[in-house]
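Protein entry
_____________
===
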Amino acid sequence: MSAIQWKRICCPIDFSGPSRDAVRVAADLSDQFNAELMLLHVFQIPVYSFLDATVLPTARMLEQTLDRTDSLLAHWQGEAEQLGARLVVTAKADGEPSVEIVQFARDNKCDLIVMGTHGHTGVKHALIGSVAEKVVRTADCPVMTIRPSNQPLQPQTQTVTEAVSS
C-alpha cells in the first residue's frame, strides 16, 4: 500500500464552532502534507413563499451578504495560515451545501474533504439532516469529519483583552 499523498484539501466552512475545529485539523494536515487548503463556504439564497407570491432578497441585500462572506473568508484564510496551512485559497458557492461541496471537491480534484459536524442526533438530526453525512455518502474522495471541541480557532495566544487586563 502506498503512502498517503494529499495535495489538495477541501474544508467546507459555515463559520460555526465545528467549522473552526475542522479548519484547525485541515491546516495541520496541509502543513504535514504540504497540501493546498481550499476553504469553501456554501450559502443558499433565501427565497420565501407567501400565499401565491415568492419573495426574493434585493440586489443590495445579496451584495451585502456576499461582501460579508468575502470578509469572513479572508479572516478565516488568515487564521488557517497562522495555524500552519501552506497555501490557503477561498471559494464560495450558492446552492444546496452537500451537493455543492461534493461538486467543488470533484471539480478541483481534491484528495480529501475535512469538515466539521454539529453532532445532532435523534429528532433534530431527522428534521434538519446532516450535510456531513450526505457528503460522506456522495463524495469521490475520503471525507474526514471533525466533532466539535469548543476550542477557539486561534493558536494558544492571549487575546488583546486578556493581554490588556493582565
Remarks:
- The chain has six helices and seven strands.
- The two ends are 53 Å apart (CA to CA).
- Residues 59-82 form the longest helix (24 residues).
- The helical segments are 17-33, 59-82, 97-107, 122-128, 131-138, 160-165.
